[in-house]
Amino acid sequence: MDNDVRALREAKGLTQAQLGEAVGVSRQSINSIEKGRYDPSLPLAIAIARYFGKAVEEIFHV
């Protein structure tokens, strides 16, 4: 699954660690999501989308 997490994170000037802390996961989890090695659970995808003020479908797509 493709995603726009990295672009959104960088646009806000956040580190992976800062985003991870904000949504309750490790920096490594954010790194894996950004690289497409890990698809987040639905609750995590929702938390990330809410953090950026977007719908899940706007961030995570096929």
Automatic annotation (TrEMBL):
Keyword annotations of the record: DNA-binding
GO molecular function: DNA binding
Source organism, top-level taxon: Bacteria
InterPro entries the record matches: Cro/C1-type_HTH, Lambda_DNA-bd_dom_sf
SUPFAM superfamilies, A to Z: lambda repressor-like DNA-binding domains
Domain HTH cro/C1-type: 5-59
Pfam families reported in the protein's UniProt record: HTH_3
UniProt KW DNA-binding keyword: yes
Protein name: Putative transcriptional regulator
Organism field: Actinomyces ruminicola
